[in-house]
């Protein structure tokens, strides 16, 4: 059994050593905000927080997350920055299909917290690792700038 | 896109590591290895997680050099370690590697051990005159970067041996460093990389990425090689050293 601490709750899950954190969050714990996209670290849809910093959920074996605090989008419901980001994403139509949104929000929150969202150019560079297949980047950049 | 089955082991001591590695691959931050496994370009039956090894993520100034444990992440270096101006040079290199969620786990030692010919650290560390501290059990050896990097995806690491740390000499006052990365998008692997290190009164030391891995440019290009001479001039100019 692997013991995971997710969004402040402890869970014992049965998983293989090869299973990624993103897979286990979705399939074993039902936390489906985290999306699985490319599964090799390129698209950013699976971003989650590990010890409060964003990581690719697909590039961390779940077993190696044992003993570390995992936070998914579900766990950021009452987070002050996330509340602003959610409102700004709605106001600026920053999503179409929504598949990239969870990873986008987690990456955007990190940019704001690190003070790296000061201009459109900075936001674009900071979100370079987040792919939106609907290509709705203009709205996303506007939303992140508005959410600061 | 699911890796082939493997067993995960955790190394707790340096002494136990060589035996654990006998039929396994070492796992640092996993930001290069896990994608290779997901794409099934590699199918090891076991991985050994290194991060719990004593001192694996230490940073210290020792004997006129900055000691960076192999497990130190790109993000930590981006946020600033060691004395200025080395701190700023290292930060600039780290900030150009992949994306912040990758930099939060990816390590300097892992990048060096893989020696992808388009990767940033091998070129930067070669220009900075760094050395690799290699460890196998209780045995250590220190290799200058030029001897450690033996070719694309090739290093001097022996079976059972891993990188313990990278050491970078603290530069003399007045030393300059320029770094130029040309990539199709922010964070992408480089099309071209050049690092130029210039200590006062010394010839510039120039490292570039090549298909055969990171390599030093000759101090003075041979007069019959105008391409090399031009590449050298462009590297110096673009790196702003």
TrEMBL record, chain A:
InterPro entries in the record: 2Fe-2S-bd (IPR002888), 2Fe-2S_ferredoxin-type (IPR001041), 2Fe2S_fd_BS (IPR006058), Diverse_Oxidoreductases (IPR051452)
Key words, A-Z: 2Fe-2S, Iron, Iron-sulfur, Metal-binding, Oxidoreductase
Domain 2Fe-2S ferredoxin-type: start-end pairs: 1-76
Protein name: (2Fe-2S)-binding protein
Membrane-spanning segments: none
Nucleotide-binding as UniProt keyword: no
DNA-binding is among the record's keywords: no
Domain of life, per lineage: Bacteria
Any one Pfam family match given in the protein's UniProt record, by short name: Fer2
TrEMBL record, chain B:
Domain named FAD-binding PCMH-type: residues: 1-173
Protein's UniProt keywords contain DNA-binding: no
InterPro entries in the cross-refs: Diverse_Substr_Oxidored (IPR051312), FAD-bd_PCMH (IPR016166), Mopterin_DH_FAD-bd (IPR002346)
Keywords assigned by UniProt, alphabetized: FAD, Flavoprotein, Oxidoreductase
Name of one Pfam family that matches: FAD_binding_5
Tagged with keyword Protein biosynthesis: no
Xref: PROSITE patterns: FAD_PCMH
Protein name: FAD binding domain-containing protein
């Amino acid at each position: 059994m692997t013991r995971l601490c997710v969004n402040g709750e402890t869970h014992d899950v049965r998983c293989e050593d090869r299973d990624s954190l993103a897979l286990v969050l979705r399939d074993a714990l039902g936390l489906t905000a985290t999306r699985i996209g490319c599964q090799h670290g390129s698209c950013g849809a699976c971003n989650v927080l590990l010890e409060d910093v964003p990581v690719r959920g697909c590039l961390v074996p779940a077993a190696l997350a044992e003993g570390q605090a995992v936070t998914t989008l579900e766990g950021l419901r009452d987070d002050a920055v996330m509340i602003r980001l959610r409102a700004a994403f709605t106001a600026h139509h920053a999503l179409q299909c929504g598949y990239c949104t969870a990873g986008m929000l987690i990456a955007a929150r990190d940019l704001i917290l690190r003070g790296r969202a000061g201009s459109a150019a900075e936001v674009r560079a900071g979100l370079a690792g987040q792919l939106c297949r609907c290509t709705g980047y203009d709205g996303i950049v506007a939303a992140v700038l508005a959410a600061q | 896109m699911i890796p082939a089955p493997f067993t995960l082991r955790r190394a707790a001591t340096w002494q136990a590591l060589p035996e654990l590695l006998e039929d396994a691959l070492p796992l640092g931050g996993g930001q290069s290895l896990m994608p290779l496994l997901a794409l099934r370009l590699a199918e090891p039956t076991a991985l050994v997680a290194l991060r719990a090894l004593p001192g694996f993520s230490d940073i210290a100034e020792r004997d006129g050099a900055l000691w960076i444990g192999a497990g130190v992440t790109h993000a930590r270096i981006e946020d600033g370690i060691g004395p200025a101006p080395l701190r700023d040079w290292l930060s600039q290199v780290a900030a150009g590697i992949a994306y912040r969620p990758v930099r939060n786990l990816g390590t300097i030692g892992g990048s060096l051990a893989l020696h992808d010919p388009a990767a940033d650290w091998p070129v930067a560390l070669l220009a900075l005159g760094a050395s690799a501290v290699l460890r196998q059990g209780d045995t250590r050896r220190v290799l200058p970067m030029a001897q450690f990097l033996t070719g694309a995806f090739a290093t001097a690491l022996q079976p059972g041996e891993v990188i313990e740390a990278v050491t970078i000499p603290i530069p003399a006052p007045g030393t300059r460093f320029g770094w130029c990365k040309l990539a199709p998008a922010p964070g992408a692997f480089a099309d071209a990389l050049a690092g130029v290190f210039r200590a006062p009164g010394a010839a510039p030391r120039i490292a570039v990425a090549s298909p055969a891995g990171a390599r030093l440019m000759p101090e003075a290009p041979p007069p019959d090689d105008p391409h090399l001479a031009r590449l050298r001039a462009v590297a110096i100019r673009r790196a702003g050293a």
